């Protein structure tokens, strides 16, 4: 499989890890969009949120628990942060391995969800 995040999980591509468990890996994004920008992924390859099965729901819960811990560890839990999952082409998903972006460390702009061409 030619999946960037699977290669990070197996260690063939290095990452700056902030959390690792049996099922979940969290690491710094190489092109941060905020002062704190961490990616949180399941170690199991799931292409996107659309492919999450009923059996995978415990992984989603674990990802959210890890997000709480990482936000606290990174010092952004009190000031606030965003947890984002991009799904599919219109959602701007660029890596086809389920992942969440944890963004914080600064006041983040308003999200409208609509590009200027659709207003």
Q: What is the CATH topology assignment? A: HIT family, subunit A
- How many angstroms separate the termini? 40 Å
The percentage of residues in β strands lies in: 15-25%
CATH class: Alpha Beta
Overall 3D shape: globular
CATH superfamily: HIT-like
What summary fits the major beta sheet? 5 strands, antiparallel
Give the count of structural domains: 1
How many β-strands, per DSSP? 5
For the largest sheet, list the strands in their spatial order.
1-2-3-5-4
Instruction: State mean pLDDT (0 to 100 scale).
Output: 93
Low-confidence stretches: none
Radius of gyration equals 14 Å
Structural class: alpha+beta
H/E series = HEEEHEE
- State the CATH architecture: 2-Layer Sandwich
The residue fraction in helices comes out at: 10-25%
Please, how many helices? 2
Keywords:
single chain; 5-stranded antiparallel β-sheet; 2 helices; 5 strands; globular; HIT-like_sf; catalytic activity
Could you walk me through the main structural features you see in this protein, from its secondary elements to its overall organization?
The N and C termini lie far apart (40 Å). The relative contact order is 0.21. This protein has one domain: HIT-like (HIT family, subunit A, 2-Layer Sandwich), CATH 3.30.428.10. Strands 1-2-3-5-4 form a 5-stranded antiparallel beta sheet, covered by helices on one side. With 119 residues, the chain is of the alpha+beta class. 20% of the residues lie in helices and 21% in strands. It has helices spanning 4-10, 57-73, and strands at 17-20, 24-28, 36-42, 81-84, 100-104.
């Amino acid at each position: 499989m030619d999946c960037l995040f699977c290669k990070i999980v197996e260690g063939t591509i290095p990452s700056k890890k902030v959390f690792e468990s049996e099922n979940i890996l969290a690491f710094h994004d190489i092109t941060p969009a905020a002062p704190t920008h961490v990616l949180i992924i399941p170690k199991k390859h799931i292409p996107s949120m659309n492919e999450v099965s009923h059996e995978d729901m415990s992984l989603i819960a674990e990802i959210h628990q890890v997000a709480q811990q990482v936000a606290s560890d990174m010092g952004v839990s009190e000031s606030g942060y965003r947890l984002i999952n991009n799904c599919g082409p219109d959602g701007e998903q660029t890596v086809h391995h389920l992942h969440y972006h944890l963004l914080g460390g600064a006041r983040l702009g308003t999200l409208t969800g609509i590009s200027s061409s659709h207003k």
